Amino acid sequence: MLKQDIIYLTLQVLSCVLLFLLAGFSQKYVSSKWKLCYLAPAVFCIVYISTTSIEKLLLPVYIGAAAVAVGFFWEKKLLRRIVSALCAFITVGGLIGAAVNPYFRMTDYLGEFEDTLKEMEKRYILTDYKQIDWDELHDKYEPIFREATESADEKLNCSAWMQLCAEFKDGHVNYIPEDEAVEEEVIRDICGRDFGLSILNYEDGRAVAVNVDPSLNELGIHDGTVIVTWNGKSPEDAAKDSEAYQYLGYADEYNAYFYRSLLAAGTGKKGNVVYIDDDGNERSAELSSIGNYYDRYKSTLEKLNKGVKAAHMSVTELNDTTACLRIKAMMYVGEDSVNTDYESTIRSLRHSIKEYRGEGKENLVIDLRGNGGGSGTLVRAIAGLLAPEGEHLYCYDGVWDREASGYKKNPDGTFVVGKKNTFEGENCLGGGKIVILVDRGSASASDHMATVMSRFDNVTVMGFTKSCGSAQGVTGIAMSSGGVSLSGSLTLNEDGTVWIDAGTDMKSGSPLDIRVPLDEDAVKAIFVDDTDYLLEKALEHLDSDK
Amino acid sequence: MKNIINSQIKQLFKNKLKFIVLLICCALSGFIVYGTWLDYYALEQLPEISASQLIIYNWGSVIIMVFFFVAVSVGDICAGDFSDKTVYTELMSGCKRSGTYFGRAVVALVFTLIGSLVIVCAPVLISSIIFGWGTLVSVGDFVTRVFVLIVPIIRIICEFVCISFIVKNKYIVLGIAFGIVELQSVLGNLTNNAPAEILGITSFERLCIFDCWATSGLDDRGNIIANAALPAGEMASIYIWSIIASAAAIWIGYSFFHRDDLD
Fold first, then answer.
1. A30 phi and psi angles, rounded to 5 deg
2. CB–CB of A278/A217 below 8 Å?
3. Which of A363, A469, B82, B95 is most buried per CB count within 10 Å?
4. Shortest Cα distance from B91 to chain A (angstroms)?
5. How close are the terminal C-alpha atoms of chain A, in Å?
6. How much is the pLDDT for B55?
7. CA dihedral sign of residues A378, A382, A387, A390
8. What ipTM was predicted for this assembly?
9. pLDDT tens sequence across B152-180
């Protein structure tokens, strides 16, 4: 129930009581002005509706407010008292009814779904490329949203949107709920139980326990213990049983493959695990739940992809020859939050880099892990600062066809190429080596930066997996229950193919020059020694290049 | 009533106040056109400078102008004659109250509606002459909107007729208009879920402010796509509710004036 509802309904009851008393008073002190007071509930009601919305459950209250206006036209004391009392009773009833009714002020989830899906179809630019069948999506999700509406189930609505968005396999298609707590509840519901471990796969395919709870050590399960089966299935297959599996919308096959077993350890009522102990013997155990798997899932990802602990957009020393530029998002909140050319950001970066170069630090690690994107203009400014001198290609724009309300296509199915976006290199680093660290969370403008800079000879992109692989411009659609973001502006390669984003093959164009294998050393470093393994590998790579 | 209408028309042309206000409102259209020009050159995001760009970005500015013009015009026609006691003289000389009420209401309705439409269309026409029509909105969609807009304007006029005969003071009418605009700007921000037809001003907003979205290049001027065509159901709803509200306002105003103690 909204605060406005309580205030309005209370005021309406009070005004009805006053109008009841006024019926007698106006007979004693006669004036034609008194009757205007009987219009007040109707006027307040209109103001109230205009600031909230029409609520069907309050229809009797609206009618009651209108009925009091009878006192304006007929000045009989009894009639005025009857309508005032009636309206007061109806309003009190409405107040109580509204407080206990779960359908009160409930969003029409189905209507919202219908409208938003139509709008998405109009705006989404990768429909053909990703072979999105809008009718199929509608038919699949319409019953779920209908159920959410009929049962006034906010969580079901949220989970349906999350699943629907995952179907696109596009990092830019996301549901942003109005209430983040609802989203977390949904995720907790679908992640399953925590049995004290997560499962990842080594490069050679073996599934291993990671982020293991110390309580499992007495069973001989620790970080790096090989898991043979989980509840009778290979961890990869067990992960597919997780309800959360439907909510994964990896845009790129690398990420989907790397994290293929991560959801397994949340499945089942009991964790029946078969594993290889330290002596090489196959053992089994039945693990009991110790909580919700979401917490472990989250902490596993955090340990794996934590990134350099440094301030956003700061340059810090890593060793005698290398500095690190940490970019947590492609945006800047200082003076440049209003300057779209990012002049002061670039000035400050230029100064820091030159200072470090003066100290002999010729190499740079750019840490884009967990960087969900932002401004392409900032990418261009940073890439320009570090690029070799001369003109460099960023990407091509598409050409909008106003008549067709879509991007223009060539007869062969590729898009018509529009403006060529370029930038000038400044070579601020003086030719030193650059390693860009990426993970699955490096999305959008981070994808741009990795892709644009990977074209330079002195740049190496490193990670366990590729970056997200979603690089189109984003648009948003607002709803009462939240909002949806989606790819709405096209960026292209020179040949008119979509830049970076993957089609149905999930092979994105985001670069990965060195795929760091997840192996025994990596698991030990990350989950036992709590070190930044990827950063160590980056420094190793830079040192080996000397 | 015929005599009242004739005298009101004569008074309309004798008293230049309403024409001056209309002229000022039209002159303010120049600022809307300037705003359109400014948006194009300062924001560097808009795809074109044209009348249709004005319609999408700045047309909503006419709402306030129309609202105050209606308040001034209707207040002067319907409430202005209370202060110099003309209404009392009319009634004492045998005029029926219905004639006094509806005679003024008709003149107020016709003159204010024409003036409002001039304010609504002036910036678009000026912009069209200077910059051309453009491609963002078709002329047909604009004309349809103006056509639908007539009914909410009539509704607002009728509501002010009602208010004028209740308060009987043109300055208070203007004050009420100011209060409504302020209230709308404060309360209107609480939520946008209210149906457009609930108030005359919200119907007006729905018709003058376009839903639009954009696509853009990396750093190029974007493409603005306006959902210019209004759903038939919504148009019908605005029409029906505006007619009902107009009739109710006229009826309430007359019911009050008909039995009012004129002291």
1. -75, 130
2. no
3. A469
4. 18
5. 67
6. 86
7. positive
8. 0.82
9. 999 999 999 999 999 989 999 999 999 88
Most A CBs within 10 Å: which of B43, B44, B218, as the mutation test of the A interface? B218
Please answer whether residues A498 and A126 qualify as being in contact, where contact means their C-beta atoms are separated by less than 8 angstroms.
Answer: yes
| Strands (DSSP E) found in A73-225 | 174-177, 193-194, 198-201, 207-210
pLDDT at residue A323 in the model: 94
Q: CA nearest A30 in B: which residue?
A: B261
pLDDT given at position A238: 96
Which parts of chain A have pLDDT scores under 50? Answer: none
Mean pLDDT in chain A? 92
CA separation for the pair B137, A274 (Å, rounded): 66
Q: How high is the pLDDT of residue A56?
A: 83
CA dihedral for A306, A311, A312, A317, sign (positive or negative): negative
pLDDT in tens, B184-217: 777 665 556 677 777 888 888 888 888 888 888 8
Please give the pLDDT value at position A276: 95
The chain A residues in contact with chain B (CB within 8 A) are 4, 31-33, 35-36, 39, 46-47, 49-54, 72-73, 123, 125, 376-377, 380, 394-395, 397-398, 400, 402, 405, 407, 418-419, 421, 473, 475, 480, 488-491
Query: What angle do helix axes A77-100 and A59-68 make, rounded to 10 degrees?
Result: 160
CA-based nearest residue to A527, from A137, A78, A212, A264:
A212
Residue A160: which of A239, A246, A102 has the closest Cα? A246
Residues of B whose CB is below 8 A from A402: 135, 223
A222: three-class secondary structure by DSSP:
coil
Q: How far is CA A199 from CA A220, A276, A304, A305, A525, in A?
A: 15, 14, 12, 15, 16
With tokens 């609206």, the residue in question is A62
Please give, rounded to a whole number of angstroms, the shortest distance from the CA of A83 to a CA of chain B.
18
What is the spatial distance between Cα B165 and Cα B75, in angstroms, rounded to a whole number?
9
Whether residue B228 contacts residue B210, with contact meaning beta carbons closer than 8 Å, is answered with yes
Q: Do B241 and B207 meet the contact criterion of CB atoms below 8 Å apart?
A: no
* Contact in structure between B249 and B157 (CB atoms under 8 Å): no
Best B215, B216, B255 residue to mutate vs chain A (most A CBs within 10 Å): B215
Concatenated DSSP letters for A27-83? HHS--GGGGGGGGHHHHHHHHHHHHS---GGGHHHHHHHHHHTHHHH---HHHHHHH
Residues in contact with A11: Cβ distance below 8 Å, sequence separation at least 6, in sequence order: A44
Q: How many CB atoms lie within 10 A of CB A147?
A: 15
Integer Cα distance of A89 and A83 in angstroms: 10
All residues at 6 or more sequence positions from A71 whose CB lies less than 8 Å from its CB, including other chains: A19, A23, A35, A37, A38, A79, A80, A83, A84
> What are A269's two structure tokens?
């009522």
The residue assigned the tokens 């009894």 is A78
Taking CB atoms within 8 Å and a gap of at least 24, the contacts of A531-537 are A532/A306, A532/A307, A532/A308, A534/A369, A534/A437, A534/A462, A534/A463, A534/A464, A535/A308, A535/A318, A535/A324, A535/A365, A535/A367, A535/A437, A537/A462
- Which stretches in chain B have pLDDT values below 70? 40-46, 187-193, 220-221, 262-263
